[in-house]
Amino acid sequence: MPRYLLFPGRHHLLTRFQADYLHRLATGGHHDAADGDHAGADAGPTGTGGRVTDDEATVVWAVTSANHENTRRNPVPYHRREAAIERFSVLAGLRSVVVPVFDTAETDRFAEVTLKNVAATAGLELTPANTVVACSTPQVAAMYARLGFPLAGVEADVDPTPARPWDVLLRLAADDPSWRELAHPATLDVYARYRLDDLVRSVVNDPVVGDEGGLTATRDYRTYAEAFADAAQRKWAAVREHVRPGRIVDVGCGAGAVLELADREPTLRESDLIGVEVARHLYEECVHKKAQGFFANPNVFFYRRNVLGGAVFAPRSVDTTMTFALTHEIWSYGDQMASLRRFVQAIYDHTVPGGVWINSDVCGPDGRDRTVRLRLSTTDGANPARPRADLASLPADQVAAHLAGLSTRARLDQFAVDYRFPFGFRPVDDGTGAVVELPLGAAMDFLTRKDYTDNWLSETQEEFCGLEWADWKALLADVGFEVDPASGPYRNDWIVTHRLAPTAALSTVDGAPLHWPVTHVLLVARRPVNT
Prior knowledge:
Elements: E1 4-9, H1 16-26, E2 58-64, H2 78-92, E3 95-101, H3 110-122, E4 131-134, H4 138-146, E5 151-152, H5 165-173, H6 179-182, H7 185-194, H8 196-204, H9 221-239, E6 247-251, H10 257-263, E7 272-277, H11 280-291, E8 300-304, E9 318-324, H12 327-333, H13 337-350, E10 351-362, E11 371-376, H14 396-404, H15 408-418, E12 426-427, E13 435-439, H16 440-447, H17 456-459, H18 469-479, E14 482-483, E15 488-490, H19 493-500, E16 504-507, E17 520-526
Parallel strand pairs: 1-2, 1-4, 2-3, 4-5, 6-7, 6-9, 7-8, 9-10
Antiparallel strand pairs: 10-17, 11-13, 11-16, 12-13, 14-17, 15-17
InterPro entries: SAM-dependent_MTases_sf
Organism: Micromonospora humida
Protein name: Class I SAM-dependent methyltransferase
């Protein structure tokens, strides 16, 4: 009889089959689920299962990805998973110890990492002599087998294989009512009390956020966090005079840098400062900052939400909403104008009468569809015969190195391959190979992204020039906002001086030089007082 049963897994949902299997394994009985009823299966939410005896093995639940939540791979936070496991143990008559295991980079030593976590957290030395590992995932089980641990296959032990917990969770997400028949009463209880079924449906069915909680798998969030911090002073200086005290929300707050500056404003000391961020990496940095005392205001809160998933705040409850470099992402990752309009409507709905939405973002040039000529440098890098079609298969450092070695003209060819929003361009036969004709909006989309080699595969998923100033004014008026005179498009001359002019030039199709167009927009939109 082993002293311990190590049960590693994410454990977002517990099943009736698991209760029967673990109870039989812990008591030394036959663990074929075909025999007998499921232990604890008929116990109600307040009932108890079998009585634990001294000779029963202790189940050690190693809850992996314990530091992850609100992602498709890990929708349920650790503390809720732990609560369900403890309830499950009571109902199933199991002695249990629950140990969190934080996510690690992929390694073939994950079994050793888990065992060390158990030793450090619970003080238990699990060895092949005193422990059986219960695991249905062949790759993970093989790691423990290499260390000499005896194995129990859980669902893999039974033919036909019972529904695995993750499959049951996906049934929940798909609104298949059979999930309730398979889930253990402990899961049903905890899910009902904390509305986790709604959370699972929202996260698993999210059309934008990836498995690990980001917008794209290739995005380097360290780089983004640093960029947000560097630009925070400039952003706050541009919007500070328009901020209305009260409930102040930064949607897409990044690592919270702008809210840090708002926190230092004496006139906002009585305000609530609220950050909303979808990317797990950035949200976790916000929470870390708050825990470390970065904010003096006690009323600073952070939420991890996808604003495309529906309303985040109650109607007429927010005085100021700020968004920085967000609306082009909603346009790009959603259904373009349809998604953006829903977002603007949601902002309007949660704004108090007289409240304000301040939006700073990139902007398309006026007349973005007209054809222009773009001359690009061919001497600042290599000019291969054709662009690569396999960049996404390369490691990130190789992608960046390849792009860094291309001329500006060659990068346009590569951009046309990788860009998610197709556009046409035509080389101009002037003997140089440096000139092309294309829509002005596509030209500016390329020029404002051509230097982002570290995040190229992420940046090419986004369209900067989808809307021009006239489109913004029409959209805001249609929803009901009044546009403050402080609003308008503008050109970032630093970008022109350092990024555009050194390697590119614009002209009409007749060759007449064109001034560089606008690149950004500041919107100050107010909800009328009488609405």
